[in-house]
Amino acid sequence: MAGGGLAVAAAGGVEFEAKITPIVIISCIMAATGGLMFGYDVGVSGGVTAMPDFLKKFFPVVYRKTEEGKLATFFASYTTRRLGRRLTMLIAGVFFIFGVIFNAAAVNLAMLIVGRILLGCGVGFANQAVPVFLSEIAPTRIRGGLNILFQLNVTIGILFANLVNYGTAKIEGGWGWRLSLGLAGIPALMLTVGALLVVDTPNSLIERGKLEEGKAVLRKIRGTDNVEPEYLELVEASRIAKEVKHPFRNLLLLRKNRPPLIISIALQFFQQFTGINAIMFYAPVLFSTLGFGNDASLYSTVITGAVNVLSTIVSIYSVDKLGRRILLLEAGVQMFFAQVVIAIILGIKVTETSDNLSTGFAVLVVIMVCTFISAFAWSWGPLGWLIPSETFPLETRSAGQSITVCINLVFTFVIAQAFLSMLCHFKFGIFLFFSGWVLIMSIFVWFLVPETKNIPIEEMTERVWKRHWLWKRFMDDDDEYVHHDDLAKKNGFVGPL
């Protein structure tokens, strides 16, 4: 193809012509700032609750941050489908900005709680809309890399927040925590402005009946007038989507929707059971053992944060070349090895009379920590968001993404609440516990997770699910749309879902 274009083979020998256009790159970068907002919120919350000045003023229990986003993500599913991906991102940014204002200016517990609820709504709406937006607007051959921009921004946000917390904790006068919380407004403002500037996805426009506008945007983002094959496929997907009056009911009842639903839920579960929380918890302790003293927390933050960011960049460049499966499987081996080595070393330490690791052992454990973090950052971290966003059909994509986000938040909360208790009971064995889960999830990937690289998202059913040894069994007569009322009665459901 001339002009540096990309030709993506579609079903029946048709090709979708697409160039890597500036508008796509800029739109994806702007939308991905939703990840920066999410990452900063995750990073700043834990640090602020540890600041003495904050603890004197408020109860830290209000900072159980995973609670607020669960309900918001279901409302976000409706706005993503009915109002579009772009407007949902705008709503997310506005929610977050108001949440930042309430938190940074908080003078009592009520203001802080209202602020956290608004921040949770912002995170819920952003995590719902941004991955879907990125997957739909990106050319197929670089869809994975552009989607992972979201996760890259999450890692950058966490690193930036940790560095900010380290600095503001040293500010005298008791207002450092306000600065930490207030700076969250920067990524929120970036997402809000970005949502005002970007175009909505052709999938969303066509789904909402704006056919000509959708076709015009498709020409614009693909950099060519030859968009008819892709446009017709989107129109057909939209026709099917419009027949679905209750997407959540459709998602839960139709057999053809179970493969992407099962895989999405499993990926969110496994992502939290990789043991990333155990690794990140131990990092500052290990740096203290190496003699960094009071600066151990800073060095831990910088080194683990930098490994996280750089490894996510590796994923951006490799996910569309190597594929999703190979990254997940390779990372499984790497994470399993790192956790077993850490468990053995800490197990030896527990049997010694000394309470501290020797420098040599501590250095080896730090290397293993970085080995683990790098594997997670180029696999389960970003791909847990990428794969669900590209595998659901248009008619259930918003509902599927909302369930994905909700499951992620639920298991994040579960691990966060159970971790310290598990650590007290298992001690070094906690790494063996998580390594066992890494083995299980790798087996799951080997047998049940299909490869989705270079497959147009509207063709996943024909070219992925119908060709998989197990999931093809779910693509039976239910593959044709079944009237939702009849299906509901058949399965004993009453009322809207």
Automatic annotation (TrEMBL):
Organism: Lactuca saligna
Family: Belongs to the major facilitator superfamily. Phosphate:H(+) symporter (TC 2.A.1.9) family. Belongs to the major facilitator superfamily. Sugar transporter (TC 2.A.1.1) family.
Pfam family, one: Sugar_tr
Record-level GO cellular component terms: membrane
Domain named Major facilitator superfamily (MFS) profile: residues: 5-453
Compartment(s): Membrane
Transmembrane segments: 20-40, 87-107, 113-134, 146-167, 179-199, 261-285, 297-319, 326-348, 360-381, 402-422, 428-449
Entry-linked CDD domains: MFS_STP
Classification lineage: Eukaryota, Viridiplantae, Streptophyta, Embryophyta, Tracheophyta
Nucleus as UniProt keyword: no
Keywords of this entry: Membrane, Sugar transport, Symport, Transmembrane, Transmembrane helix, Transport
Protein's UniProt name: Major facilitator superfamily (MFS) profile domain-containing protein
Domain of life: Eukaryota
PANTHER family according to UniProt: IP12678P, SOLUTE CARRIER FAMILY 2, FACILITATED GLUCOSE TRANSPORTER
Matching NCBIfam families: SP
GO MF term set: monosaccharide transmembrane transporter activity; symporter activity
Topology in the lipid bilayer: Multi-pass membrane protein
